């Protein structure tokens, strides 16, 4: 599916931004007007135009709030948060030290936090003890009754953020009577940007303290906690569920068996061989050439080198091999929904692999297609259909486990 751009990465990221519209994260006219000023593959245009839209909508939101128009202010600030995130997306040349990237990320978080003050349902910040620091999170509540409810614990992916959790799952969950606990883990959002913590493959070390916090919250029914993994989060939560039996259900959107396969699909086999042999002197220049010629490859290699703490593009490809369910998947016993997308440009075929590997868990594989408008990675552009699929399954799975 091509959406407004021929460039595959620009197309997908524009669809991603627009796809949050059902939950107040975008307005289609704003997306169309922004895209009109962006030339194919021009990352400077992308940054400038999305930032300008974010700033304009941000001002609208603050103006409405100041005038006492709570709903209008909230809606505009939610859109601004998504647009600031989108503006920052390709700033990956020196992401750890780029003040503009840091400022856009801060604005995305701040406008979201400001919008939360005008929500109709309770939301409160949560700090999750993790090693010698804390992970930031939000607890989205159906109401203020304090009653324990089934709860979805959200884990994001390779480039998503805590603020994105509202559009990706929380808004849909709240409408259906589920609370949501969302957090940024190592390699993600503020934890990467402000704390400098990078991804780790043994994600059970992250989810265990998250579940400890969740189970202690009075609003959480500790017997009905579902893990939801978004994009690379599909690997992360599956890995965690193999080591923690408190999980009542598992949703993988999408299923990821072997993260390395995403990189293997970007590079010629001969270059992969050089990487495995440690011949970085020849592999790195070739990978740099591949990055120069492809927006998606360039972004993927740059983001991963930063977020996974790799020393080079070649090192990133090697590090990615550690993110696999091989030898682990058969430990998972929780009922699992594995989502898949027909045209997933990152993990095509991986959901089927995960479903086959889960030998000791009740598994349902849901492959959503182009015909349904849901064939893109994480079903961008078709979130209402994806959420219908997820939550109809989850209602049934938790009822059966009761």
From TrEMBL:
This is Alpha/beta fold hydrolase. The keyword Plastid does not apply. The keyword Transferase does not apply. Gene3D superfamilies: acylaminoacyl peptidase (1.20.1440.110), alpha/beta hydrolase (3.40.50.1820). Keywords: Hydrolase. GO terms for molecular function: hydrolase activity. Signal peptide: none annotated. SUPFAM superfamilies: alpha/beta-Hydrolases. The lineage of its organism: Bacteria, Bacillati, Actinomycetota, Actinomycetes, Kitasatosporales. Belongs to the AB hydrolase superfamily. It comes from Streptomyces tremellae.
